[in-house]
């Protein structure tokens, strides 16, 4: 243990109040009740927004926090979308997202465990985090509990719980509790994404072609068409008639900056549920080649391709690699015999795979399965 870390641990232990033991006993009951409530919410078949709101209400009764930001993520790229947040710095949203993606400390893609705190990760020297150093120190943020929800099928979301410096940092009991609910929350978020494919689509809600949002190198909005605004309104729920905050677009653009900075290698792409079974693909790219890092960033938004839908559908429903492969062959028009030939297995094995897919997707036939997977 380094001298800095040892000193930090000594100071933290010395700061524990005498009532801590009593509070732990009291908290254990709150944690048990919260775990039970969260597990129930995660199997209730809720959409992702409702699930997150219910879980946050339950969390508040067990763990104190002053602000939060909870995003869904593309399961393959881990790029965020569909934010649910209550933070004091919405006016600085572009900078906040840019720094969140560009800061390696406690980045959700680099966490070795489901939960980590900023105080622990920096041994109490919060200024080591660029995210804290620039915007968050001005809001007297004293600690952040960063949670990631991922399984073998992908990354489904990340949550940051903020606590001001007026309160104590997150302690071991709180992080242990947050860790204990990571598995059911991961499954709940994945299931909420799977449910979107079973909902009827509406042709009127789908854009006829790609729409584009133009951002500056620091993610200020340069230009957007009215059609872009219309679809961003659907991506980000708002209660006013103001221009929508294009948070989903900021996220893919920030991922592009993270790529360029060498922080994360995943592509600046996110598949995002829009409404009624419709999925969009958001991608970011630089415009021009004279000075790439000084060029503007174009974010394209278009209906997800069949391959994009199939990948997210397979991951969300927990299909095995072979089951996902079979689904791709079926989507391409293959029958049982052709699928067996392409997969180098028997037709009976294909039927077994198909039965497993039906069970996992709650589809009662190939036509229904493909209609949900492809959105047709």
Which residue ranges are poorly predicted, with pLDDT under 50 across at least 5 consecutive positions?
Answer: 1-9, 11-25, 239-243
For the record, the CATH architecture of the domain at 203-305 stands as: 2-Layer Sandwich
Computed Rg: 22 Å
Q: How many helices does DSSP assign?
A: 15
CATH topology name of the domain at 203-305, in short, is Beta-Lactamase
Overall form: globular
Termini, distance in Å?
58 Å
Overall mean pLDDT stands at 87
Q: Look at the helices and sheets and give the structural class.
A: alpha+beta
Percentage of residues in helical conformation:
40-55%
| CATH class type of the domain at 203-305 | Alpha Beta
Number of strands: 10
- H-E string: HHHEEHEHHEEHHEEHHEEEHHHHH
For the largest beta-sheet, the strand count, sense and barrel status come to:
5 strands, antiparallel
Biggest sheet, strands in spatial order?
2-1-5-4-3
* Portion in strands: 15-25%
Structure description:
With 376 residues, the protein is of the alpha+beta class. Among the domains are: 203-305, Beta-Lactamase; 319-374, Winged helix-like DNA-binding domain superfamily/Winged helix DNA-binding domain (Arc Repressor Mutant, subunit A), CATH 1.10.10.10. Helix content is 45%, strand content 19%. It has helices at residues 3-14, 20-42, 48-60, 93-102, 118-121, 130-133, 172-180, 182-196, 226-235, 247-261, 306-316, 321-331, 336-343, 347-361, 366-374, and strands spanning 67-73, 80-86, 115-117, 141-151, 154-164, 211-215, 221-224, 269-275, 278-286, 297-303. Helix 2 runs antiparallel to helix 3 (48-60) and helix 8 (182-196) packs antiparallel against helix 11. The longest helix is centred in the first third of the chain and has 23 residues, at 20-42. The N and C termini lie far apart (58 Å).
